[in-house]
Specification:
- There is one protein chain.
- The chain is α/β, with parallel strands linked by helices.
- It has helices at about 5-20, 35-45, 70-80, 95-105, 120-130, 140-150, 155-165, 170-180, 180-195, 205-210; strands at about 55, 85-90, 110-115, 135.
- The chain has two domains: about 5-145, Rossmann fold (3-Layer(aba) Sandwich); about 155-210, Arc Repressor Mutant, subunit A (Orthogonal Bundle), CATH 1.10.10.
- The protein contains ten helices and four strands.
- It has a four-stranded parallel β-sheet with strand order 1-2-3-4.
- β2, α4 and β3 (about 110-115) form a beta-alpha-beta unit.
- α8 (about 170-180) packs across α9.
- The longest helix is centred in the N-terminal third of the chain and has 14 residues, at about 5-20.
């Protein structure tokens, strides 16, 4: 279990120990940051006793060497070193782009927004992840349904433009975030305005329309 809030970890741990099945034996290791988690993961592989399940919080402090900036990077690392482990993502983030990105890059067996979480939901999620994954909480499912039912299709770069604009990033700074030229950014913003039928050229109008369709 990887989370930088000890009380939250204690709550998760107590819930699982209290609700586990009679035939289940749980050994739980706790890490509070990326560095600790990497050491635990590597040691489990070396000891030929790899973890079965990883609970990963997305909001983690960066690793000391800067190679990991969040739990998302850590989960991607876990996929490489512990390919058989089931990954459960827990996060406060509920933006459509972030959810879409995590599903695409990590494809977790469990994905829960913390505001959806109750003890019984966590217990159900754990058993579902073990026996019949995936398990997604209500908010995650809602974002997935919106994306599926929408007739609008936009690629990852355009999703990222919307996400960055919604975070207050100025158009002139988008190019450095996306590794494309400013003219390519302008072209993509023009596409987005056409897709969402925005005629006044205002970013706020574009963001409002994208929000209605569940893209932010």
């Amino acid at each position: 279990m990887i989370d930088d809030h000890p009380m939250i970890i204690e709550g998760y741990q107590n819930t699982l120990l209290f609700t586990k099945k009679d035939n289940q034996e749980l050994e739980i290791d706790i890490a509070n940051n990326c560095d600790e988690a990497v050491v635990y993961m590597n040691n489990s592989v070396q000891a030929e006793s790899p973890y079965n399940v990883l609970f990963v919080d997305i909001s983690l402090p960066p690793s000391t060497d800067g190679s990991m900036t969040s739990g998302e990077d850590l989960a991607e690392y876990a996929r490489k070193v512990l390919p058989e482990a089931k990954i459960v993502i827990l996060t406060m983030f509920n933006e459509s782009f972030r959810i879409h990105n995590i599903i695409k890059n990590i494809n977790p067996e469990g994905f829960m927004i913390k505001s959806d979480l109750t003890s019984s939901e966590l217990a159900s999620a754990f058993q579902a992840v073990l026996n019949n994954p995936p398990f997604y909480s209500g908010t995650v499912n809602s974002h997935i349904r919106k994306a599926i039912t929408s007739d609008i299709v936009i690629d990852d770069k355009n999703r990222k433009i919307l996400h960055l604009l919604s975070q207050g990033v100025k158009t002139k700074n988008l190019a450095s975030h996306l590794d494309i030229s400013l003219s390519a950014v302008e072209k993509r913003k023009k596409q987005l305005r056409e897709i969402f039928d925005v005629t006044d050229g205002q970013d706020e109008t574009l963001l409002n329309e994208a929000r209605k369709e569940g893209f932010i």
